[in-house]
Hints:
Transmembrane segments (chains A, B): 284-301, 313-335, 356-377, 383-409, 430-447
Membrane topology (chains A, B): Multi-pass membrane protein
Family (chains A, B): Belongs to the SLC41A transporter family.
CATH class of the largest domain in chain A: Mainly Alpha
CATH topology of the largest domain in chain A: Tetracycline Repressor, domain 2
Keywords (chains A, B): CBS domain, Cell membrane, Magnesium, Membrane, Metal-binding, Transmembrane, Transmembrane helix, Transport
Oligomer: homodimer
Radius of gyration of chain A: 30 Å
Distance between the termini of chain A: 71 Å
Helix content of chain A: 55-70%
Number of helices of chain A: 24
Subcellular location (chains A, B): Cell membrane; Membrane
Amino acid sequence: MNEINNENLAIIAALDHQKRTLFRSQFLKLHFYDQTQLFASFTAKQRSRIYQFLTPKELGDMFDEFEVEETTVIGFLKEMEPQLAADILSEMYTDNTVDILGQMDKADLATYLNLMPADEIAEVRQLLNYQDKTAGALMTTEYVAIDQHKTVSTAMQIIRHQATNAEIIYYLYVLDDAQNLIGVVTLRDLMVSDKRAVIQTIMNPHVYSVFVDDDQENIAQKVREYDFLAVPVVSRTGHMLGIITIDDIIDVIDEESAEDYSGLAGVNVDDTRETPWRAAIHRLPWLITLLILGMSTAGLINHFDSLVSQASILAVFISLITGTAGNAGTQSLAIAIRKISVENDRKIWHLISNEVLTGVIIGFTSALVITLIVGFWKSNFILGGVIGISMMAAIVVANLAGSLIPILMDWIGVDPAVASGPFISTLSDLTSVMIYFSVAQLFLAYLT
Amino acid sequence: MNEINNENLAIIAALDHQKRTLFRSQFLKLHFYDQTQLFASFTAKQRSRIYQFLTPKELGDMFDEFEVEETTVIGFLKEMEPQLAADILSEMYTDNTVDILGQMDKADLATYLNLMPADEIAEVRQLLNYQDKTAGALMTTEYVAIDQHKTVSTAMQIIRHQATNAEIIYYLYVLDDAQNLIGVVTLRDLMVSDKRAVIQTIMNPHVYSVFVDDDQENIAQKVREYDFLAVPVVSRTGHMLGIITIDDIIDVIDEESAEDYSGLAGVNVDDTRETPWRAAIHRLPWLITLLILGMSTAGLINHFDSLVSQASILAVFISLITGTAGNAGTQSLAIAIRKISVENDRKIWHLISNEVLTGVIIGFTSALVITLIVGFWKSNFILGGVIGISMMAAIVVANLAGSLIPILMDWIGVDPAVASGPFISTLSDLTSVMIYFSVAQLFLAYLT
């Protein structure tokens, strides 16, 4: 990477000395992603020079590659003359343009839209209307399409013409006279076909497409299974509207897995650049909610106060039983969230009964182990048995809760990943204590 | 999907009635992935017919798309004549062939290797040697390369010739006389260039490549940032060895995120098709280990037995303090694992100090809330203060453990995702109880 760093120094020097031609020749050689990395390290003054040195098209190509939050990009755009910002937005791929415009306040949105070309305004407005996390919100309109009656040589001409604008030129989508999607031809097919062949005769009519209102999670799953580089998006009537490219699919896969992961931990892991203050503010509401829920467990133990006074040995095993049940419940939760979100597996009774049965086996084994340990330690196998029975029951209930709760949330339309691990642990504390003290009360005479 | 189901019925009928031509015309029209889905639903008898009806090349194309475990594919191969299996393995992309051969026992491996073409044997043997989870293990050797001195029109001929064999024809890698990678040309570049132009003059010399021993996680990160469809793999001396395609990168991203997720839950979420018995057997070792660790918490509470006898009210808040600290520690753990694995961020002191500071803020706020609740509830603000101070200290320690432990594991070369959420919770139970009872002992006189 040393070579690149030296290059970067040369680029910065050219910029600082206002050597426009030198800067352009060096900076434009970089990969767009490297351009964004370098750009992000510049001062406001350096950035203002770049806005003059590069064309809107060159800036748009770079802006397409930003991997930062939309709000950061909006910050850059607002540093420029509004017309330049609007020009950059028109040069970018529509899906990225729409992502950025969608995060702007209404006044800015109106300003930039007014400065964009009329045909683009209509397109952008249309895309802004699609619901988040659907095909419509992910797709771009820069694809290559061709009429079924055209020839291979025409197709090649169209691709050559659109090569610099289309987001992916590997697939050529075939439309009928009503602009409905009826087939696909790959660039590979075109290259090995006779130049005079009619597209209709060489196209693959088994074109896989998604509906504009399809959920992004299902689309990502399909693209992965079929190893597509892009997938076409059609209206419910078969009209071709756009394409979703593999780079956006990867972002979806990442977003969905980060959501599942965040849910399990009860913390948003995408907020990794936070200061301690902001992190605390984001985490506290959930922790305090769980603290209040935890108070009901404390209240329950308080309710059994006389039991604990009579047999203080019971206090010794509270955290062991709640902890073990919490661990088992978290495992069930993780499996359930994964099954629901990744595999779209909704054979729910099968999932729940599997987890409960697993809980019975795990619970029985753990109970056996703990009964023996406690029995020998305290020379009291009835105490051991009470702990064992309570632990088994607590584990089964925790497994039931861990698998049932995300399924219920999925049913009522809430993302099951919200049923976080900490929530299941805290809930399982309550049920575990209830089970434990109820069992202990029955055998109180033998415990003291 | 109705149409496809009817198609499937027609295909199955053709197969069952041994109508070879009809079967071929219908089955080969399906996308390879759909072929695998249908194939997987067939009986052994139906499969044995398919092995006769399709060519090794056609079977190889389908086998390339299998998304099932390698052992399942090996099962299919072993149903066939060994020569057919070897032919299919030679027709498949080398990375997939190697994945399958790598899972075979030595006898089978020797059998199939002996039946494969000599040049392929050497290549496969070489690839089998690369370490798991490195570029070498992911790459395929079916790429398109060209000498720097050739022209655009020669390049187009080469691509046309290799179109059906190469895994991706979108990038053409440019080699010097020593077979070292010196540039890249996209098909897009070729299509818009003069046919007589020399490759060297139109190539992009800023070709991004990875070393054959690079870690798959870092490669996946780069491919995502740069939005590549494939990345070339070179030896430490710059010799071109293969390419890694985007579909394999997606599998890496998925594998790594499943590992992080599994770690957080203390359960392998990839084992989702398990019976309760197998699930229990996989989960029990970890749960029993944590149970034993939990016993030390029980032992500690037992050590403070006289304290609990004197002030049984202390038992009421054990699970509240351990639970809240466990929740906070799990949040820190999730952030730390994510920072280490996704962002490759190893500014460790910054991470730890951030988490500890967050713990102080969260701990102080939770302490304030719980002091007030307990103070009013029990009309005893000293008791409230004891619970509050203990909770704050327990949270800070849990946050420290949650961020420090995965970092320590990363240092000693263990995947930090193994530092599971349940482990942190159980460990935090121990430290929380120690803090709680130590603080309580100081204020014992005021608690009863």
